[in-house]
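Before relying on records like the one below, remember that each one covers exactly one chain. Contacts with other chains, cofactors or solvent are not represented anywhere in the record.
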Amino acid sequence: MRDADAMRGRGSVLTATNKARLDEVLGTDSHALEIVGNPENLRLIKAEIAAQTRKAHEVRSTLS
């Protein structure tokens, strides 16, 4: 999904309650954030959204 042309210049943040199982089903690293209900999860999600937003801005600036 992340490599699709439609996603170029867009970010994505995937969360899961069992990342190991998701990776097993996919057969590869999903790069998901495992959310287990602790306060640290919110910080991780915010940081990943910020990182994906920066990446998306960088890609969009090269496309225009």
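Residues 11 and 54 are 9 Å apart (CA to CA).
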